[in-house]
Design a protein that fits this description.
Strand content: 25-35%
Helix content: 25-40%
Number of helices: 6
Order of helices and strands: EHEHEHHEHEEEEEEEEEH
Largest sheet: 9 strands, mixed
Mean pLDDT: 95
CATH architecture: 3-Layer(aba) Sandwich
Structural class: alpha/beta
Amino acid sequence: MAETVALIDYGAGNLHSVHNALKAAGATNIAVTADPQVVRAADRIVLPGVGAFAHCRDALWSIPNMVDAMEAAVLRGGRPFLGICVGMQLLAETGEEHGSHPGLGWIPGMVAPLVATDPALKIPHMGWNDVIPVVPHSLIEPGEAYFLHGYAFAGAHVLARTDHGGPVTAAIGRDNIIGVQFHPEKSQAYGLAFLSRFLEWRP
């Protein structure tokens, strides 16, 4: 029986593109859902995210029992979890966009504004850039991916970096949890290969 991938719909993600990319990467049973019970029972969980940390955080927490279901499935159940863009940032303890806001706290660290050290570099960081692994991980390969963000994670469990006037976190993860700052659904062959590895991942 095909594994169920729960793609969490909390009004803050590029759901159509992520769904299509997961399907192209080999997923055959994708549940786009705001139902905590579906998330709790899923084999794999994907949390997308576009926009401001605070808005995404409030939207996720506004779904009754959703965070509890995620913690049951991921932290206690050991299901593979992928956070994309703001979905990755929400793994942090705090986000500093429009004030200080608590995140899930699954990975120690905070999300702070990108600072332009070179006037020629624009914020937000937008476009194709290198993904440079910093520790070995079966899901992270060197290559080019598409980024769009004005805030970045700083903390523990960094798996890969990119460069935008200095090192910027591109991926974080521990145990059965991984988050990527880039958008695999917009990263063409590199992104589809990454999602394919995630769908086969047995952490």
